[in-house]
Design a protein that fits this description.
The structure is a single chain. This protein is of the alpha/beta class. It folds into 2 domains: 13-40 and 263-356, Aspartate Aminotransferase, domain 1 (Alpha-Beta Complex); 44-260, Type I PLP-dependent aspartate aminotransferase-like (Major domain) (Aspartate Aminotransferase, domain 2). It is built from 14 helices and 13 strands. The chain has helices at residues 13-17, 44-51, 55-59, 65-75, 87-99, 114-121, 140-146, 169-178, 191-194, 232-241, 249-260, 262-285, 306-315, 340-356; strands at 31-32, 82-85, 105-110, 126-131, 151-157, 183-187, 208-213, 226-229, 289-290, 297-301, 318-319, 321-322, 332-336. The strands form 3 sheets. It has a 7-stranded mixed sheet with strand order 2-8-7-6-5-3-4, with helices on both faces. Strand 9 (289-290) and strand 10 (297-301) form a beta hairpin. Helix 4 (65-75) runs parallel beside helix 11 (249-260) and helix 12 packs parallel to helix 14 (340-356). The protein is globular and about 60 Å long. The termini are far apart. Bound molecules: pyridoxal-5'-phosphate.
Length: 362
């Protein structure tokens, strides 16, 4: 008998150094203005498609290729340029695993979406944060100055979260030109609220990859459906790492109905944009500073009492997201924009909470 082994398996050092990330889910049976989801519902056409799911579809492994061809056609791309993923999160994970070697550099404008850092930390690459100034505008000059021969991936969330600020097409093109050795990932999770895209450049810019999600405007966060669009040669590498079955049959069945119901999507987006304008006026009237947002959320400077503000809003039935621990975001709270009716409820909770905390405009 060998001596008893007293040690446990030890994870990689990089994994040991990772912070645990627990999104504040828990009981969310309130007005959900904390995760930038669609706050209402997906298209009724998607619900119908779900009700038609057969036992056979549940029994068989999911087949993503026919659906990839449909979405590629919808985007005006070739099927080989598009890969469906289990949300953009899987897309990010797969790209980082595919391209990042030890000591490669990943340029990350911050503050930004948390999962880039989570997945990058799990690789052996080096994260180079590029801090935005106080206006949280895209830090173009700083990013360009940070490009080195070791830069392997540059991440641009456009619009960015939690700020809602954007990067211009010209800036993206210039970054891709200045760093031909790097993959430029443009995450267009909030594209529908912004309306500008670089997906039309896929295939013409050799190092550009675009990600899109069905979690936000389409209202399908629970299904976990996203996509990557990029040049065929880069996509071929990414597909080696991507699980062939990570997008499940229910998600695949819902994709076409979601894409086809353009009128539902357009209605929801127009509703959110109208609600955002109304709600921004409420924030301004309350004398709070906010950042100009092109997405379905707005970042607001609440100041030192941000945690109490978030807690009181929750007690008033409105979930909002304290972003204070994001770099350069102390005191800032992100509020998702829903419909006008929902945002009127949020505005009442906001005014009451500010009054209770004595934070109203003088
Ligand atoms: C910029 C950005 N990208 C991606 C995601 C996640 O997308 P998915 O639900 O498709 O994984 C989010 C979610 O908040 C996000 O803010």
């Amino acid at each position: 008998m060998p001596d008893a082994i007293l040690t446990q398996p030890v994870p990689r050092l990089r994994v040991q150094a990772m912070k645990e990330y627990h999104p504040p889910l828990g009981s969310r049976d309130s007005l959900r203005l904390d995760f930038n989801e669609n706050t209402l519902a997906c298209s009724p056409k998607v619900r119908e498609a779900l009700s038609r799911i057969t036992t056979g579809a549940l029994t068989r492994y999911p087949e993503r290729e026919p659906v990839e061809a449909i979405v590629a056609n919808y985007l005006g791309l070739q099927p080989a340029q598009v890969a469906l993923t289990n949300g953009v999160d899987e897309a990010i994970h797969v790209l980082f695993e595919t391209f990042l070697e030890a000591d490669d550099e990943l340029l990350l404008p911050v503050p930004t979406y948390t999962m880039y850092e989570v997945y990058a930390t799990a690789t052996d690459a080096c994260i180079v944060p590029v801090q935005a100034a106080d206006d949280l505008a895209f830090p173009f000059e700083r990013l360009v100055a940070a490009i080195t021969p070791r830069t392997k991936i540059i991440v641009i969330a456009n619009p960015n979260s939690p700020s809602g600020t954007v990067c211009t097409r010209a800036e993206i093109l210039e970054i891709a030109r200045l760093a031909p050795q790097a993959l430029v990932l443009v995450d267009e999770a909030y594209f529908h609220f912004f309306g500008e895209t670089v997906i039309d450049l896929v295939g013409t810019i050799p190092n550009l990859i675009v990600a899109r999600t069905f979690s936000k405007a389409y209202g399908l966060a629970g299904l976990r459906l996203g996509l990557l669009a990029g040049p065929v040669d880069l996509m071929r590498w990414a597909r080696r790492v991507l699980s062939p079955y990570s997008v499940n049959s229910l998600a695949l069945a819902c994709l076409s109905p979601a894409l086809e119901d353009a009128s539902y999507l357009d209605w929801y987006v127009a509703e959110v944009l109208a609600a955002r304008a109304e709600f921004e006026a409420v924030i301004d009237a309350a004398g709070l500073h906010r950042w100009p947002s092109r997405a379905n959320f707005v970042l607001v400077d609440i100041g030192p009492r941000h945690a109490e503000f978030t807690r009181r809003m929750r007690e008033a039935g409105v979930l909002v997201r304290d972003r204070s621990s994001d770099p350069g975001c102390d005191g800032r709270v992100r509020i998702t924009i829903g419909t006008r009716e929902q945002m009127r409820q949020a505005a009442t909770a906001l005014r009451d909470t500010l009054a209770a905390l004595n934070l109203e405009a003088q």
